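Lay summary. Proteins are chains of building blocks that fold into shapes, and those shapes determine what they do. In this project we predict the shape from the chain. Here is one chain we studied, written as its sequence of building blocks.
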Amino acid sequence: MIIRPKYLQEHPDVVKNFLRAHVELTDWISKNPAQAKQIMNQQLQKETGKPLAPEVLDDAFSRMAVTCDPLRSSMAASTQRAFDEGFLGRTQPDLSRLYDLTLLNEVLREKKAGTVQ
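And here is the predicted shape, written in a compact code that computers can read:
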């Protein structure tokens, strides 16, 4: 979730409620992959006029992990590679303020689901 710091500061309750819904949905998808695939494919058909073949969905779902974790380490590694290859200028990007996981971790603790880093 990308959000302006000012909005987060002014509306933490709205953000936290959104995160609660996100965590609940993520958990539901993990526990109900067959239903999730069916719902997703119905929506794809509604949006595009054509569903995906079941084997395509099965293959896609077999290669992904549904998670609430924003994978900070993945972003850091990608940024480092882009910097090393010269795509991000001459100054190492500062990612220290990119993530604020405070509210997400509060929601995860409420659900006794651990925390993310």
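What the prediction tells us: The mean pLDDT is 92.
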